[in-house]
Amino acid sequence: MARQRTLVFLDASVLVAACRSPSGGSALAMEVCRGRRFRAALSARVLLEARVNIAEKFGEAELVRFYQQVAALEPEMVAPPSQERIEECIPLTTQKDAHVLAAALVCGAAYLLTLDRRHLITAAIQSAGLPVRVMPPGDFLKEIAPGALR
To answer: How does pLDDT run across 28-77, given as a tens digit for each residue?
Structure first.
């Protein structure tokens, strides 16, 4: 019987960083999510947010790389969280970012990877006792492969 892979929800900030730096930590974390232990989870809203940011701020090469990276991920697409679930997350983050936390919780992700230290990697979220661990890609990589990134 095949072992189920651990879900890792990716925020738009990770997708944007990965398309800009294909050899950086965000891209490496995405690569790990293609392996046997981990599987990426995304929501349509996160994908749209990343695509809009890339199209507005960068060039065609980055947009093409974004599409290639997402296609290679074969992510689990998460259904939109209910408005009630999003509203439950607002006290922990902001209205703009509550959908990210809600989607990660709804899909049962073990990890939520983000570069948003202002709204998602916060003391309020870290101390809330949530079943999802919120962290930047670099910390995720250090945790799953201690010593490998030196």
So the answer is: 999 999 999 999 999 999 999 999 999 999 999 999 999 999 999 999 99
Ramachandran angles phi, psi of 121, nearest 5°: -95, 80
- Candidates 3.40.50.10050, 3.40.50.1010, 2.60.40.3500, 3.40.50.720; CATH matching 6-144: 3.40.50.1010
Nearest CA among 116, 99, 118 for reference residue 107: 99
pLDDT tens for 88-133 read 999 999 999 999 999 999 999 999 999 999 999 999 999 999 999 9
What stretches of 1-95 adopt beta strand conformation (E)?
Answer: 6-10, 38-43, 76-78
Q: What is the pTM of this model?
A: 0.94
Rounded Cα–Cα distance for residues 119 and 64 (Å): 28
- CB 99 within 8 Å of CB 76: no
Is residue 40 a contact partner of residue 76, using CB atoms and an 8 Å limit?
A: yes
How many whole angstroms separate alpha carbon 49 and alpha carbon 103?
14
